[in-house]
Amino acid sequence: MKLYSYWRSSAAYRVRIALNLKQLSFETIPVHLLKDGGQQHSSAYQALNPAELVPTLVDEQGSLSQSLAIIEYLDETYPEPRLLPQEPFARAKVRALALDIACDLHPLNNLRVLQYLTGELALDEAQKLRWIQHWLTLGFNALEQKLQQTAGQYCYGDEVSLADLCLVPQVYNALRFKLDLAAYPTISRVNHNCLQLAAFALAAPEQQVDAQV
Amino acid sequence: MKLYSYWRSSAAYRVRIALNLKQLSFETIPVHLLKDGGQQHSSAYQALNPAELVPTLVDEQGSLSQSLAIIEYLDETYPEPRLLPQEPFARAKVRALALDIACDLHPLNNLRVLQYLTGELALDEAQKLRWIQHWLTLGFNALEQKLQQTAGQYCYGDEVSLADLCLVPQVYNALRFKLDLAAYPTISRVNHNCLQLAAFALAAPEQQVDAQV
C-alpha cells in the first residue's frame, strides 16, 4: 500500500496510526503542502485526489480519499485489532467523537482555510491565532464534556478506537497553536495513554520521512 | 425516536432522509438556531449535545450526535434499504463522497462560522458571500469530478447511498447561496433523481413543522 501523506497533516496522521495498529506495511509518498505552491495541487495528485487534500491511500483496488473512510476500509478489510466496538449504539458513540473532530474542529483550522484568512481576508497573525483558538476552544470544551462520560483509558472505554485516532493528531495540532490543555484533563489523559503505544508514537509527524524538524 | 432538528440544517436534513428511507416514524423536536440567541445553546440542549449543534437523535438507548454517525447507526440497526454497498472498497468510496461534503464543504459555511465572519471579523455581506462561494466552488468542482467516475442514477451507481443523503442537502444549501449549477451536470442530475423519491421530498426543509416559508 502507498500512503500519500504530509508529516504535519492531521488527517494523514490518523491513517498512519491505523496502519501501524494493524501492522500493515506501507510506503509513504510525501506530498509537500507548502512547497511548489502546494504539491497537492499538482495535476498528477489532483487526478488521484480531486479535492487536492491529503491523505490518499492506494492499494491494488485503487485509490481512496478521506481519512475516516480509509480507516473504516482498513478496519473492515483487516479486522484486527478492531477500531470500532461491535454494538451499534457504541459504534455510533465512537463515530460521533471522531466526527466531532473530523467535521467540526479540524476543517476550520486547516491550511487552506488559514491561507484564505491571511490571503483573501488579509487577517494579521493575531487575528489568525484568535480564529484558530476560537474553534479549538469550542471543540475541546465539547469533547472534554463528552469524554468525561465515555473515556476509560482511551476515548471510549479501555480499547483504542477510531476516536483516539482522531484525538491524538488534533491534540498535536492544538499544541502547535499553543492551546492551554489545563482545562482538558480527560483529553490530556487519553492523549498521554495513546502516545505510550508504539503505533501512535511511530505515526507522529516528527517520525516521518518528510519531517522537517 | 425523537429528532432534534432545524428545518434548514443540512445535517438534520441528511438524517431526515435516512429515517424516511427506512420508513421509521419519528417526532421532530424543533431547535431554532436563530431564535432566543440560538436554542442550540440552551442548557437543556447542551446537556444532550455538548457541541450545541443539530441534529440529535434520541431513542430508547440514549442520545446520538453527528449526522453521519446517526445514519450509520440507523443503517446497522434497520438494514433495509441499505445505505452502503456491501463490498468494503465500494463502501469506502461512498463514505468518502459523504465525508467530502460533511468534512470539507459543509462545516466551512455553517451558521456559526458565518456568524464569526460577520461578527468578530466584521465582514460585509459581499465578503461573506465570496467566502461561501469560494468553498462551495472548490467542493463542487471536486465532487463533480468524482461523481463523473462513480455516478449512475445516484452518486454511486444506481442505488441510493449515504452519499446522496449528503449531496441533496448540500445542493439545497448551495442554491440558497445562489451557486450557479450549470458547471455541475452530474451533481444536478443526481440531485434531480433523488428529489423524485418521496423519502427525499418529504425531508426537504419546506416540508418540516418548523419551516418558515
UniProtKB/TrEMBL annotation, chains A, B:
Ranges for domain GST N-terminal come to 1-82
BP term (GO), one = glutathione metabolic process
Domain named GST C-terminal: residues: 87-213
One GO cellular component this record assigns the protein to is: cytoplasm
* UniProt keyword annotation of Isomerase present: yes
The cross-references to InterPro entries, in alphabetical order and at most eight, read: Glutathione-S-Trfase_C-like (IPR010987), Glutathione-S-Trfase_C_sf (IPR036282), Glutathione_S-Trfase (IPR040079), Glutathione_S-Trfase_N (IPR004045), GST_Zeta (IPR005955), GST_Zeta_C (IPR034330), GST_Zeta_N (IPR034333), Thioredoxin-like_sf (IPR036249)
Question: PANTHER family under this entry?
Answer: GLUTATHIONE S-TRANSFERASE YFCF (PTHR42673:SF21), MALEYLACETOACETATE ISOMERASE (PTHR42673)
Family as reported in the entry's similarity comment: Belongs to the GST superfamily. Zeta family.
Protein name, as recorded: Maleylacetoacetate isomerase
Q: What is the organism of origin for this protein?
A: Alishewanella jeotgali KCTC 22429
